[in-house]
Write the structure tokens for this entry.
Amino acid sequence: MNLRRPGATAQRVLGQLRNDPRTIALLLVVPSALMGLLAWIVSEEDFDQYGPPLLGIFPLIVMFLVTSVATLRERSSGTLERLLTMPISKADFVFGYAVAFGAFAIVQALVVSGLSFGIFDLDVRGSGWLLVLVAVVDALLGTGMGLFVSAFAATEFQAVQFMPAFILPQLLLCGIITPRDELPTALQWVSDVLPMSYAVDATQQVMISATATAEFWRSIAVVAGFMVLALSGGAATLRRRTT
Amino acid sequence: MATQSSAITVENLQVVRGGKPVIADLTVEVPRGQVVGLLGPSGSGKSTLIRAIVGVQIVAGGTVVVLGESAGAPSLRDRVAYVTQSPSVYSDLSVVANLRYFADILGAPRSDVDRVLHEVDLTEYADRRVMRLSGGQISRVSLGVALLGKPEVLVLDEPTVGLDPLLRRDLWALFHRLAQQGITLLVSSHVMDEASRCDRLMLLRSGELLAFGTFAELLQQTGTSDIEQAFLRLVEGDAA
């Protein structure tokens, strides 16, 4: 596989991000501040329970938003149409975005979890590095979903509204608010097919077990599966020919 | 099928958008190594025809063959360059970052970036972000992207809108230099006075080809002294 085109695309996307320092600051400061706020308002026990899932959910939401707006901009500015008349494959394009936002997600996860463990006294049995891994896989899932939904948004207003539509139901059903086995049966089935349920489950495994459990890896694998699905779905929405 | 001498062959092209025919039944053959002007009022189907030639338009019927391949074929992606009407470049990146990115995608050497900056006269703005440029400068960045690599066919949708006369003259000179190297250029414009700068003209109205020929031929055919008149004569003749 030739990496020149996805590499150039990732570099270009990161270049655009670098030219927008306020967005970078928001992407790093907002989740950090929210974790700090949570640590401040809840008991230490509750923070240890709710903190780790949030470490996984932030990158998912943030990358979902960033990607859906970024790709919508590519679609409406004509740069996507221009690119697709050139020798770049849809996979190159999607892969470039995934690499750029994945790289940024690593930085974000390191900053937010570093502060959470170092200053806000977050405590988990397992390794904090596993939480960073969850955060990065979640970020890539968010990138894939954002890429996919941007195809169905005609305006940036619509793209932003997909966030509550796609993310909030998952947040309600992922097991943070009510444990999944206490949900009504029908909702348990729904919860079983939503990626965030597995993202949260992976973080909960890190909370309760000193070593990475089989269930942890299974959950990571499920999230990674959804990520591949979302990225492929996103690639499938790119059209070389339009009306 | 296309002969070796023709760059673009359009046969019985039909494009329907929103249930309405935008191009009804268009047939035309563009020879290689010429600057061909595509003239017509706004809404005449110029952009649609251009999109069909580049292969980004879903067509309802007919064939479009470019350099012997079906329009939009993968093998044409680095041989046909396309500039859309509204500039399609990244406004949050610098001029040079835009050119470098598209050069990488096309597999063009990095030295192309300097050549193109010079050709579109943007060398002194190379490091400026596109969003800080004027409209005319932005459309030159977009044009510059199309000059990267070694395109054999350049399809330009209104590339000279909003440019000062001096620059327009320079760009037309560039177009003719490129044509002398064997590159085929299809340039659309709604400004009729650009007609005399083209080797050959296509007059389009309501998705129909009114006329195709050299500037002199069209004037002679219609017995008029300028292209605006010729256009009117053709439309009225059409109606009669």
User: Anything to note?
Assistant: The domain at 1-73+180-240 of chain B is CATH 3.40.50.300 (Rossmann fold). The beta strands of chain B are 6-17, 20-31, 35-39, 61-66, 69-70, 80-83, 153-157, 184-189, 200-205, 208-213. The radius of gyration of chain B is 18 Å. The longest strand of chain B covers residues 6-17.
